[in-house]
Specification:
mainly beta, four-stranded antiparallel beta sheet, 3% helix
Length: 419
């Protein structure tokens, strides 16, 4: 087994690697809290090979599969690392999987195959769809899986038995490579963007209405609480469930042109729009559910580009994470969602591969060498810095317990809980 040389266990690692020592300078003068008692594996599960990025079930189970051509296996582990169940899939070349809200598992394999397991790992059904890609599978509602099988046909599959419920043929030769779909269980209407056309579809697969935009328009759609938000170039529109316009607002009201980077909608239908202003950095504009501008933040630097935008409603803050640029640290910013004031900033040192928000922690997985896992409290203080040399594909964390899991060269390991 590859030995695990963890940075905090030996100060010699820092002494022998001046580049790393420079990279982990304390953020904003805060002490580097990386004491050895926090850097231990709770357990290390040996699967005989590397595993895919894990997923966390509603009961805290950790699921991942061993990517082994002769014997691919999906494992479900208890939080203590013991096997809950495993599914041997020698006849099924697993390449990815999803969990739904009931912990049912949907496996995708090459040759356009889809397979469903229940929460105990028992086989439910299998289906084979032509031209099916993993990126086209959308498990979004309680009863239905949606697949875009050939970039111009939407297929609805019954999650209970794998039977096709309906097909909806869309315009051929789309300008964009796939369907961008949003769904809601409130009125059983599914809204999708295809070839710069927004189409509303009912639960039976019948078209209710559509809106057609210019093929050259930059269109993005978001759905929240009976409102379809649609960004058309640099204007944000809000439409009702029956497709009628509620309001729109022009986001390009500066002396210099702006570029819309991200939009996030919270549960109160407040839209947070992150814009890039030429030579000045990025700023945030908050827009109310009625289409009125609530506040605008001061500009902040994002030279390496924004990797993550999250609305943390419990902590009442908007989190923005940026990648580092040449000789400049990246940063994690927190802004007050009520007034746009910057609450805190913590420097990040390497490119961000994954950002995880749990009940009271923010976790950043840096994807380039050296691979680091940094844990912060919700005031931006770094609590732990993990440096596992054998980390492979991904990192996951239980949102309730804050327990952190990583994939290793031989399987899966728990980093435990950063206190």
């Amino acid at each position: 087994m590859i030995s695990r040389i963890l940075l905090p266990i030996s100060f010699l690692v820092v002494l022998l690697n001046p580049i790393l020592a420079e990279a982990i300078k304390p953020s904003l003068g805060k002490p580097d809290l990386i004491s050895t008692d926090k850097i231990t594996y709770e357990w290390d599960f040996n699967a005989g090979g590397s595993m895919n990025t894990p997923a966390i079930g509603t009961d805290g189970s950790v699921l991942s599969f061993r990517d082994h051509k002769s014997n691919p296996t999906l494992y479900a582990l208890h939080p203590d690392g013991k096997i809950k169940w495993k599914y041997d899939a020698a006849d099924f070349d697993i390449t990815n999987f999803q969990l739904d809200q009931n912990d049912n598992v949907y496996l995708y394999a090459s040759a356009h195959r889809l397979r469903a397991l229940d929460s105990s790992g028992h086989h439910l059904w299998s289906t084979n769809l032509p031209s099916l890609d993993w990126a086209d599978i959308m498990v979004q509602t309680s009863h239905t899986i949606f697949c875009d099988t050939d970039k111009s046909t939407l297929i609805a599959i019954n999650k209970t038995n794998g039977m096709i419920k309906w097909r909806l043929a869309l315009d051929e030769a789309p300008a964009h490579p796939s369907i961008h779909m949003l769904a809601t269980d409130t009125d059983h209407t599914y809204r999708l963007l295809h070839n710069n056309i927004i189409i509303a579809v009912d639960a039976a697969g019948k078209e209710k209405w559509r809106k057609i935009f210019n093929l050259n328009d930059d269109i993005r759609i978001y759905y929240q609480k009976d409102t379809l938000y649609t960004l058309v170039n640099k204007k944000l529109f809000a439409f009702t469930d029956d497709g009628k316009e509620k309001w729109h607002i022009d986001l390009n009201d500066k002396d210099f042109p702006v570029k819309i980077d991200y939009i996030r909608i919270d549960s109160n239908n407040i839209a947070y729009v992150i814009c890039h202003l030429y030579k000045q950095g990025d700023f945030i504009t908050a827009i109310s559910a009625e289409g009125k501008k609530l506040w605008e933040s001061e500009a902040f630097p994002t030279l390496g580009g924004i990797t993550t935008v999250r609305v943390d409603e419990k902590a009442q803050q908007l989190i923005i994470v940026t990648d580092p640029a040449t000789e400049i640290y990246g940063a994690m910013y927190a802004f007050n969602v009520k007034n746009g004031k910057k609450l805190w900033q913590s420097n990040t040192h390497y490119s961000v591969k994954n950002f995880i928000s749990t009940q009271n922690r923010y976790i950043i997985h840096s994807g380039r060498s050296p691979r680091l896992v940094s844990v912060y409290d919700k005031n931006g203080n770094r609590l732990c810095l993990y440096f596992p040399l054998d980390i492979k594909w991904g990192v996951a964390a239980d949102p309730e317990t804050n327990r952190i899991y990583i994939t290793t060269a031989n399987g899966l390991a728990s980093l435990g809980i950063c206190q």
